[in-house]
Design a protein that fits this description.
The complex is a heterodimer.
Chain A: H1 7-26, H2 31-63, E1 70-74, H3 80-88, E2 92-104, E3 109-117, E4 127-130, E5 137-140, E6 148-151, H4 153-159, E7 166-169, E8 172-182, E9 196-200, H5 204-207, E10 216-223, H6 226-236, E11 244-247, H7 254-292, H8 294-302, H9 307-347, H10 358-382, H11 403-421, H12 424-453, H13 461-472, H14 474-507, E12 516-522, H15 526-535, E13 543-554, E14 557-558, H16 567-574, E15 577-581, E16 589-594, E17 606-610, H17 611-616, E18 624-629, E19 632-644, E20 655-657, E21 668-673, H18 677-681, H19 683-689, E22 694-697, H20 699-737, H21 739-751, H22 756-794, H23 802-829, H24 832-838
Parallel strand pairs in A: 3-9, 6-8, 15-20, 17-19
Antiparallel strand pairs in A: 1-10, 1-11, 2-3, 2-7, 2-10, 4-5, 4-8, 6-9, 7-8, 12-21, 12-22, 13-14, 13-15, 13-18, 13-21, 16-19, 17-20, 18-19
Chain B: E1 8-21, E2 24-37, E3 41-46, H1 52-59, E4 67-72, E5 75-76, H2 82-92, E6 93-96, H3 108-118, H4 124-134, H5 150-162, E7 168-172, H6 180-197, E8 200-204, H7 208-213, E9 216-221, E10 224-230
Helix pairs in contact in B: 3-4, 3-5, 4-5, 5-6
Classes of the chains: A alpha+beta, B alpha/beta.
Chain lengths: 840, 231
C-alpha cells in the first residue's frame, strides 16, 4: 500500500472508495441511505428553488410599493447620467417629481402634495382611478394628459369641486379629470399628509413651481430583469452623491412591509426546519450504515490498512455518494418546484421570476455538507474498530468522540442557511431551539423510562417484554424517543400549530377591520359624528384627538433638515406632527423602552415615541423634544418608545402625550370605522353634513395586504409539505435504526420458544409506548415552540393548547405504532435460522 | 438403528430441504431418515457444508421442511405452524449455538431469564441465577456478553438452553469457537446437565473426541446421510 501522504495514496483511496461504493450499492447496503439522502436533498433543493422564486416574486410585488424595481431619489435634478446608464442596460425608466404646493380652487386654497409623472409611470404596480369621489374604481396604465390633474377624493371635497372643474396650480390652470383611489408608491402614513395631486411631468415648467432652492424630491424609477437590476444597483451605489439615495421596499408602506416580513419569516422557517430535520434523518441512517460496516472496517485493519486510510476510504465513499445523490436530487427538486410554481402561477403570483443558480449552489453545498458532515462522525468511529472485532464480533466499539463534528456541521449549515435566507436571528433561534428541544426531550425520556422500569412484574408477558425491552435498551430508547419526538413535533407544528399561526396571522387583519378613516373632526362635531354612525348601525366608534405641532428642537438644539441625510428624517422635519393624548397605549402597541405613564402623571409633559421615528430622528429615551404648538414652544421628556403594529390598520400615532396637557389647545379628532358597501355609499351624506370632515378610503391598501397574506399562506402551505417529508424521513430513519437488532432479537426469542403472537404483541407494545412517550413530549414541545414563535417572532397571540399534547400522543401511537410494526413485521416471517446465520 | 422404533423420541422420515437461488434449486438435505430414543446422545458429523446446521435447524423447527416429516415426541413438525413449533420449542427443545447467540444488550443473568420471561414463568430471576450458579457463572451474572470470554459466553448459553428443562437439547458445534481445554469443560457441562435432566442430546460437531462421548453418530455428506453408527 502506498504511503498515506503520497499522491499514489490519493489514487488508491479514490479507486477503492469508488469500488466500495459500487459494491455497497450492488449489495443493497446503500438503499436506505440513498432514500434518506434523496428525500433530504430533494426537499432542500425544492425549498431552495421555490423559496427563492416565491420570495423574489414577493419582492416583485413589494416593488410596487416604490413603483419600480429600483428607485433613486434626489433633492436635485441631477440623475440624467443614471437614467442614461439604465437605458444603456435596456431597463425601463420613468421620472417623478414631488413637492408641496397650494392649489387654488373656486373658493379656498389648499395645501397639496403634487407628483408630476412621466409616461410609463408606475413601472411596477398599477394606479387605480375613479370618475368621481368614492365611485367604483378601475386600474389604468395611463397618466394624466397634459393640462389634466388627477386628485385624491378628499381634495375634491375640500375644494368643493367636481370632475371637469378647473383649478390653478402655480401659474397654470388645469382641468380635474379623475379621482385617484390607489397610488402604489404613495408612501408615508395614511392621513397626516396633505391630499395628493397627480400631473403630467411635461406640464411642470409651465407651473413655474420648481425653482432653485425649492424642497423638491426627484425620483428615477427603473425596472428590468431582477438579477440585472441587482447588479445595476451595486454599480450605482458607489456613484451616489450627497442628497441621493437608492430606495428599497423598506421605504414603502409600513403596513405592507410588516406583512412581507412575516411572509419571509414563515418561508425561512419552513426551509430551516426541512434542512435541519433532513440532517437528523441522515445522521440516524448513517449510524446504522456505520454499524453494519464494523466487520468491513475490522477486516481492512487485519489486511494492514492504517486507521487513517480506513477513515479516508469511508469518507470518500460518502463524498462520492453525496455528490451523486445531490445531482440526482436536483431533478426531482427542480421538477417539484416547477409543478408548484405552475399551480401558483394561477393562484399566487401572476409572473414568477425565472430560477436563479443561487439555490442550486446553496442546495448542493448544503447537501454535501449535510451528507458528509452528519455521516462522518459515525464513520470516523469505524477507524477505531480493532482488528480483533473479526474474531470477537461483540467487542465493544467506543462511541465516536467526534461530537464536535456534529457541532461544526450544524454551524456550517447555519451559515449556508443564513446565506440563502438572510434571517440570522431565526436561523440561530431554530438551531439553538432544536438543540434545547433535543436536550429537554432526552431528559424527559430518561425520566419516563425510569418510571416504566418501576411498573414491575404484575403485567402480562407481552406487556412486560415490550416494556422491559424499552427499559433494557435505555440509551437507544432515549435516542429513539428523541428522534421520534422531533419528527412528531414537526408534524404537529405543521398540522395543528401551523394552521393556528397562519389563522392568527389572517385574523390579525379580519374582514371587518376598519376600512375608512374619518379625519379632521372638530370638537363640536363629536356628538354629531357619533349619532351619524349610530344611525348607520355602525357599532360604537372610538374617537382619537390630535393636535398639530411642529418639531423645533431635540435636547434644546434646534432641528434642521441639513442635520439629517435620511430623506424620511428631512421629510418629517418639514411636516406637522399629530400629537395625541391617551391614558393607556393602544392594544397593538408594545413598549420596548422606558415605561408608559401612570394615572398621576396626567398633566406632565411626557412623550411616547414610535421606535422607528425615534431612530430616524435620533431621539433617545429621556431626551427633551420641543414642539411648536399654536405658536408656543412646549418641551416634552421622552418617557417610552413603542413598537407599533402598523398592519393592524388601527389608528396609531407616532407621538402621544399623557392626558391633561393638550386638552385646552385646538384639536381635531379622528376615527376609523368598518363600512359595508351600502354604508360606504352614504358617505357623501356625511361629507355634506360635516363639510370640513375628510374621509380616507383604505380599502385598496387593505386588500393588498390581505391578498399578500392569503397568497403567502398558500405558498407556505406548499413549502411545509417538504418539512413534512423531512419529518417523516426522520421517523422512518429512526425505525430503521434498530431494525437489525430487533430482527436478530426476534429470531433468538423464537428459537427460545416465543410464539409469533407474543413477539408481535411485544413489538406493538414497545412501539406504541415509544410512540405515546414521544408524542406526549412532542406535543408539549410543539405547543411551547409555537408559543415562543408567536410571541417573539411573529408577534401574534397564541395560547398553549393541551389538545396538541393529546394529538401528539395519538399521532405518536398511530405513526410510530403502525410504521414500526409494519417495518418490523416481516422479520417474523423470516425463518429464525436464516436470521441467526446472518448474525446480528 | 431401528427406523420404525415406536418408542422413538425423534423420528426423521424422508426429510429434504431445497432452497431456490439465482442459479436454480439447491438441495441442502436429501432423503434423511433416522430415529433417536429419549435420553440418548447423538453426534452429527460431516464436513463444512454437508448440511449439519440445516438438519439441526429443521429438528428444532427453526426452518421449514421442503419434503418429508419430523416427529418430536410423536408430534409432527410439518403439521405445526410457526407458533405451534415455537410452543414445542418453548417446553421441549433447548438450543446451543457455535457463536452463542446471546443478546448483547442483556446481562448474562437477563439472557438466561429471557426464555422464562417469554413463557411467563414466575421466579424467573431465581431460576436463572440458580442455573448460572450451576454453570459457575454467579460472579459474572451482571456482565454483558461483550465483557465475557468465549467459554463464559457458551456457559451462559448452555444455562439459557437448560432453563426450561428441555427434553431435547440441540447443540450446533458448541466447542467450535473455543480452545481445547475450555471446549472440554463445556462438553463436560453439557453431558452433566444431560444426565441430570435426562435430556436427549443432538450435537453437530467436527470434534471426534466429542463425537466419541455420544452414544450414536450420524455422518452427513453433501446433504445425504451416509453412515450411522453406535459408539
Amino acid at each position: 500500500m502506498p504511503d498515506s501522504a503520497s499522491p499514489l495514496n490519493l489514487v488508491f483511496i479514490w479507486q477503492n472508495a469508488w469500488r466500495m461504493l459500487l459494491r455497497d450499492w450492488h449489495a443493497g447496503e446503500l438503499n436506505i441511505l440513498i432514500l434518506g439522502l434523496l428525500i433530504a436533498v430533494t426537499s432542500i433543493t425544492a425549498v431552495g428553488f421555490f423559496t427563492d422564486r416565491v420570495e423574489r416574486g414577493i419582492n416583485l410585488q413589494a416593488a410596487e410599493l416604490i413603483g419600480a424595481d429600483l428607485a433613486i431619489s434626489s433633492s436635485r435634478d441631477d440623475m440624467q447620467s443614471y437614467a442614461q446608464q439604465a437605458s444603456g442596460h435596456g431597463f425601463n425608466t420613468a421620472h417623478t417629481i414631488s413637492f408641496r404646493s397650494v392649489v387654488l380652487g373656486p373658493q379656498v386654497p389648499q395645501l397639496v402634495e403634487v407628483k408630476a409623472v412621466s409616461s410609463h409611470y408606475p413601472l411596477r404596480g398599477q394606479l387605480r382611478i375613479a370618475d368621481g369621489a368614492y365611485q367604483p374604481d378601475r386600474t389604468t396604465r395611463e397618466i394624466p394628459q397634459r393640462g389634466e390633474l388627477w386628485l385624491e377624493p378628499q381634495l375634491l371635497q375640500l375644494l368643493d369641486i367636481r370632475m371637469g372643474d378647473s383649478i390653478s396650480l402655480g401659474e397654470k390652470t388645469f382641468v380635474v379629470q379623475q379621482a385617484i383611489s390607489y397610488e402604489p408608491d404613495r408612501g408615508g402614513d395614511l392621513f397626516s399628509v396633505a391630499p395628493r395631486v397627480l400631473m403630467n411631468i411635461a406640464d411642470l415648467p409651465a407651473t413655474r413651481l420648481v425653482q432653485q432652492g425649492a424642497l423638491v424630491n426627484f425620483r428615477l424609477l427603473v425596472s428590468g430583469e431582477l438579477n440585472a437590476i441587482e447588479n445595476f444597483q451595486q454599480q450605482l451605489e458607489p456613484q451616489l452623491q450627497t442628497g441621493q439615495k437608492i430606495l428599497s421596499i423598506e421605504d414603502g408602506r409600513p403596513e405592507l412591509q410588516t406583512a412581507l416580513n412575516s411572509a419571509r419569516r414563515f418561508l425561512a422557517l419552513a426551509a430551516i426546519i426541512s434542512s435541519l430535520l433532513a440532517g437528523v434523518a441522515i445522521a440516524t441512517v448513517a449510524i446504522r450504515f456505520a454499524r453494519r460496516h464494523l466487520d468491513t472496517s475490522a477486516m481492512l485493519r487485519c489486511f494492514g490498512i492504517p486507521q487513517r486510510t480506513i477513515v479516508q476510504l469511508f469518507s470518500m465513499e460518502m463524498v462520492f455518494l453525496s455528490i451523486i445523490v445531490s445531482s440526482l436530487a436536483f431533478l426531482p427538486g427542480y421538477l417539484t418546484q416547477l409543478i408548484l410554481s405552475q399551480i401558483l402561477d394561477q393562484l399566487l403570483l401572476t409572473n414568477l421570476p425565472a430560477i436563479s443558480f443561487k439555490p442550486l449552489i446553496v442546495g448542493y453545498a448544503t447537501g454535501i455538507v449535510m451528507l458528509v458532515g452528519f455521516a462522518l462522525p459515525p464513520l470516523l468511529a469505524l477507524g477505531d474498530v480493532p482488528p480483533l472485532h473479526v474474531l470477537r464480533r461483540h467487542i465493544i466499539v467506543k462511541p465516536s468522540r467526534n461530537w464536535y463534528l456534529y457541532v461544526s456541521v450544524v454551524i456550517s449549515m447555519g451559515i449556508l442557511l443564513q446565506w440563502q435566507l438572510n434571517e440570522p436571528r431565526m436561523v440561530l433561534a431554530v438551531i439553538v431551539g432544536m438543540f434545547a428541544t433535543v436536550i429537554v426531550l432526552a431528559a424527559a425520556a430518561f425520566i419516563l423510562i425510569a418510571f416504566l422500569s418501576r411498573l414491575g412484574q404484575h403485567i402480562a408477558v407481552s406487556w412486560r417484554f415490550g416494556l422491559v425491552n424499552i427499559v433494557r435498551r435505555y440509551n437507544s430508547s432515549v435516542v429513539q424517543i428523541v428522534s421520534f419526538g422531533l419528527g412528531i413535533m414537526i408534524l404537529l407544528l405543521l398540522s395543528t400549530v401551523r394552521s393556528d399561526l397562519l389563522n392568527d396571522w389572517q385574523r390579525s387583519l379580519p374582514v371587518d377591520a376598519p376600512n375608512y378613516f374619518i379625519i379632521n373632526i372638530q370638537n363640536d362635531q363629536l356628538t354629531g359624528i357619533k349619532d351619524y354612525f349610530a344611525a348607520q348601525k355602525v357599532e360604537s366608534i372610538k374617537l382619537y384627538p390630535m393636535v398639530r405641532a411642529r418639531l423645533v428642537a431635540i435636547n434644546n438644539i434646534p432641528v434642521s433638515t441639513e442635520n439629517y441625510e435620511s430623506e424620511r428624517a428631512r421629510h418629517m422635519l418639514t411636516r406637522e406632527f399629530n400629537l395625541s393624548w391617551a391614558e393607556r397605549p393602544q392594544l397593538d402597541n408594545t413598549i420596548i423602552a422606558g415605561n408608559w405613564w401612570k394615572k398621576d402623571d396626567a398633566g406632565k409633559h411626557l412623550l411616547s415615541l414610535e421606535k422607528d421615528l425615534a431612530k430616524t430622528l435620533r431621539i433617545s429615551l429621556g431626551a427633551t423634544v420641543s414642539f411648536d404648538i399654536n405658536g408656543k414652544r412646549n418641551d416634552f421628556i421622552v418617557s417610552n418608545l413603542r413598537n407599533v403594529n402598523w398592519d393592524s390598520f388601527n389608528i396609531n400615532f407616532f407621538t402621544v402625550v399623557p392626558p391633561g396637557v393638550l386638552e385646552t389647545l385646538p384639536a381635531s379628532w379622528v376615527t376609523s370605522v368598518y363600512l359595508n358597501v351600502t354604508q360606504a355609499a352614504s358617505l357623501s351624506t356625511l361629507v355634506r353634513i360635516f363639510p370640513n370632515v375628510t374621509v380616507v378610503d383604505i380599502n385598496t391598501i387593505m386588500q393588498r395586504v390581505r391578498s399578500i397574506i392569503d397568497r403567502v399562506i398558500l405558498a407556505v402551505e406548499f413549502i411545509f409539505v417538504f418539512s413534512l417529508l423531512a419529518g417523516l424521513a426522520v421517523l422512518y430513519a429512526s425505525i430503521l435504526a434498530n431494525q437489525d437488532q430487533r430482527r436478530y432479537e426476534s429470531a433468538v426469542c423464537r428459537t427460545l420458544g416465543a410464539r409469533k403472537s407474543i413477539i408481535l404483541r411485544a413489538l406493538i407494545i414497545e412501539f406504541i409506548t415509544l410512540g405515546a412517550l414521544s408524542g406526549f413530549l412532542a406535543g408539549f414541545a410543539a405547543s411551547t415552540i409555537a408559543l415562543l414563535l408567536a410571541e417573539y417572532v411573529f408577534n401574534f397571540s397564541y395560547h398553549f393548547d393541551v389538545a396538541v399534547v393529546l394529538y401528539g400522543m395519538i399521532a405518536g401511537i398511530l405513526i410510530v405504532g403502525i410504521a414500526g410494526v409494519s417495518g418490523t413485521y416481516k422479520i417474523l416471517r423470516t425463518p429464525p435460522m436464516l436470521t441467526l446465520r446472518q448474525g446480528e | 438403528m431401528n427406523n420404525d422404533d415406536s418408542s422413538a423420541f425423534i423420528e426423521v422420515r424422508c426429510v429434504g430441504k431445497t432452497v431456490t437461488t439465482r442459479q436454480g434449486h439447491l438441495c441442502l438435505l436429501d432423503n434423511i431418515n433416522f430415529t433417536v430414543e429419549a435420553g440418548r446422545s447423538v453426534a452429527v458429523l460431516g464436513a463444512s457444508g454437508s448440511g449439519k446446521t440445516t438438519l439441526l435447524g429443521l429438528l428444532a423447527g427453526l426452518d421449514d421442511i421442503s419434503h418429508g416429516d419430523i416427529m418430536i415426541n410423536g408430534q409432527s413438525l410439518s403439521q405445526l405452524d410457526e407458533d405451534g413449533r415455537a410452543l414445542l420449542r418453548a417446553h421441549n427443545i433447548g438450543f446451543v449455538f457455535q457463536n452463542f447467540q446471546l443478546l448483547q444488550h442483556l446481562t448474562a443473568l437477563e439472557n438466561v431469564m429471557l426464555p422464562l420471561e417469554l413463557t411467563g414463568v414466575k421466579a424467573a430471576r431465581e431460576t436463572a441465577a440458580d442455573l448460572l450458579a450451576r454453570v459457575g457463572m454467579t460472579e459474572r451474572s451482571q456482565h454483558y456478553p461483550g465483557q465475557l470470554s468465549g467459554g463464559e459466553q457458551q456457559r451462559c448459553a448452555i444455562a439459557r438452553a437448560f432453563t426450561m428443562r428441555p427434553r431435547l437439547l440441540i447443540a450446533d458445534e458448541p466447542t467450535g469457537n473455543l480452545d481445547a481445554e475450555t471446549g472440554m469443560r463445556i462438553i463436560d457441562l453439557l453431558f452433566k446437565l444431560n444426565t441430570e435432566q435426562g435430556t436427549t442430546l443432538i450435537i453437530a460437531t467436527h470434534d471426534t473426541a466429542l463425537a466419541d462421548r455420544c452414544e450414536r453418530r450420524l455422518m452427513l455428506q453433501a446433504g445425504q446421510l451416509v453412515e450411522t453408527s453406535v459408539a
